[in-house]
Amino acid sequence: MAALETIRSLPLWNGTPEVSVLKGGITNRNYRVTDGERSYVVRLGDDIPIHQISRQNEVAASRAAHAAGISPAVIHHQPGILVLDYVGGRTLTPDDVRSPAYLERIVPLIQTCHRETGRHYRGAATIFWAFHVIEDYAATLTDAGSPHVPRLNELVRRSRALEAATGPYDIVFGHNDLLAANFLDDGRRLWLIDWDYAGYNTPLFDLGGLASNNELSEAQEVWLLERYFERPVSGDLWRRYRAMKCVALLRETLWSMVSEIHSAIDFDYAAYTAENIARFERAYDQFQHSET
């Protein structure tokens, strides 16, 4: 009820708006607001220092992504509240992302994100360096006495080995959270939403995250790299990509471990941790075997 009162009190509406809960969102709460003939999305969420989420960065990245033509417009923001233009359509599923027709449409969207969004970003920009995030999460988990502490030393050791295997690095402005649910299809075009983790990064993190989050086949991964880089995949690029795919899975795993003990959102983080650690172990095993 407090959330609804907060939303209805915003100085935007011409009358009494209709408010409904939107599904999804595991770092914030999302609502659809209809005011007259126009609809909006209201995202409620404060800074989350343990996840290195700055809502000011989210606002700046959202505005830049809109200027780049890939994300809805920012209508209003104030501390803890972001109001966006509503895009009618549906969120994609992993099955959608794996389909050749959607992959053909997703790659240009990612290229635009990487090539254009940073040109429109205003203010001090962040860098999203997954290796630092992993080490910071490990320290957070240790300080909190997480039940996952016994395995952290080994996971950090692997992260450092992967860091040595993923360079040299190109740097682009990345989305850094390419879950299927962050793509919207309005029937005419795709949109990329939810810029909580946006910042400068290697493009291989987004590509590895897209593949790992949506379980692309190896043949699709090769196609993805060839389409994105517009050249055949060399052995060196394939090695660095597979290492970064492991990093994307490891970062997601530790994110979930931290959320288990710090998040108040109703979501089964323990199950999500188990799913991601299993996927990380498989990917890491495949990477090690490819190195021998």
From TrEMBL:
Residue ranges constituting the Aminoglycoside phosphotransferase domain according to the UniProt record: 19-242
Domain of life according to the entry: Bacteria
Coiled-coil ranges from the UniProt annotation: none
InterPro entries on file: Aminoglycoside_PTrfase (IPR002575), Kinase-like_dom_sf (IPR011009)
Record's signal peptide: none
Protein name as annotated: Phosphotransferase
